């Protein structure tokens, strides 16, 4: 999905862009309200992540202009946790509200929820993903290998979906733990290794070619290798 982030704090904007990009989205960033309003109105975005306190035009002004022309889902960000601010944003047409500071996993979950409800939801929901002879249906949460249905648990499917979305990219144990289990990584916890081992026994061991690979000292990658 294509997402617009309107945020004047450079470090936060770069952090959000990097995380959403790693999650498979295409992300543009605007550093002030004027540029953000222009991109939101003229661009083709499935979601806008919008800060309230912006130079030029504040987030409420951007939201008001956007709502006059588009129904693009909007997730508002603010450092102010006042009920009045949240009410004002929601009444102005925001779809969700997140207070700074926030965990990226929460932002990603809210983004996912808004995208599932947004205009592109029906297209995204029916999309299938393939890696070699591995097929996944993200709507029904089913997977097949060489035409054979895989009997995966909910967490195993989520792990496989994460790896498939970022096929060819090495994912660290920290990233996997945060994305699949929504937990901070603990070096004494082997939950990722155990889950990978169980997934491999169902998805990879009975088939060729092997798709799920360990990268020593770095993590795991899903890809077809010669």
Automatic annotation (TrEMBL):
Alphabetized InterPro entries for the sequence: CheY-like_superfamily (IPR011006), CusR-like (IPR006291), OmpR/PhoB-type_DNA-bd (IPR001867), Sig_transdc_resp-reg_receiver (IPR001789), WalR-like (IPR039420), WH-like_DNA-bd_sf (IPR036388)
Q: Give the Pfam families listed for this entry.
A: Response_reg, Trans_reg_C
Q: Which residues bind DNA?
A: 126-224
The protein depicted here goes by the name: Two-component system copper resistance phosphate regulon response regulator CusR
- Alphabetically list the UniProt keywords: DNA-binding, Phosphoprotein, Transcription, Transcription regulation, Two-component regulatory system
Q: Does the keyword Disulfide bond apply?
A: no
Keyword Disulfide bond annotated: no
Under Gene3D superfamilies, the record lists: 3.40.50.2300, 6.10.250.690, Winged helix-like DNA-binding domain superfamily/Winged helix DNA-binding domain
Judging by the UniProt lineage, the source's domain of life is: Bacteria
Which segments constitute the OmpR/PhoB-type domain? 126-224
Source species of the chain: Hydrogenophaga palleronii
């Amino acid at each position: 999905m294509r997402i617009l982030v309107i945020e004047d704090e450079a470090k936060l904007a770069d952090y959000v862009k990097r995380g959403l990009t790693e999650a498979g989205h295409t992300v543009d960033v605007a550093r002030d309200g004027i540029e953000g309003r222009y991109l939101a109105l003229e661009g083709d975005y499935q979601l806008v992540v919008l800060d309230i306190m912006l130079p030029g035009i504040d987030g409420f002004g951007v939201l008001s202009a956007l709502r006059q022309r588009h129904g693009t889902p909007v997730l508002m960000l603010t450092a102010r946790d006042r009920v009045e601010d949240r009410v004002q944003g929601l009444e102005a047409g925001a779809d969700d509200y997140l207070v700074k500071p926030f965990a990226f996993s929460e932002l990603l979950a809210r983004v996912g929820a808004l995208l599932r409800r947004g205009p592109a939801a029906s297209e995204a929901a029916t999309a299938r993903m393939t890696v070699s002879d591995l097929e996944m249906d993200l709507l029904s949460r089913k997977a097949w290998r060489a035409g054979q249905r895989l009997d995966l648990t909910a967490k195993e499917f989520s792990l496989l979906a994460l790896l498939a979305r970022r096929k060819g990219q090495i994912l660290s144990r920290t990233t996997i733990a945060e994305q699949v289990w929504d937990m901070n990584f603990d070096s004494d916890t082997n939950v990722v290794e155990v889950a990978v081992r169980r997934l491999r026994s169902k998805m990879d061991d009975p088939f060729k070619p092997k798709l799920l690979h360990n990268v020593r000292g770095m993590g795991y990658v899903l890809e077809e290798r010669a």
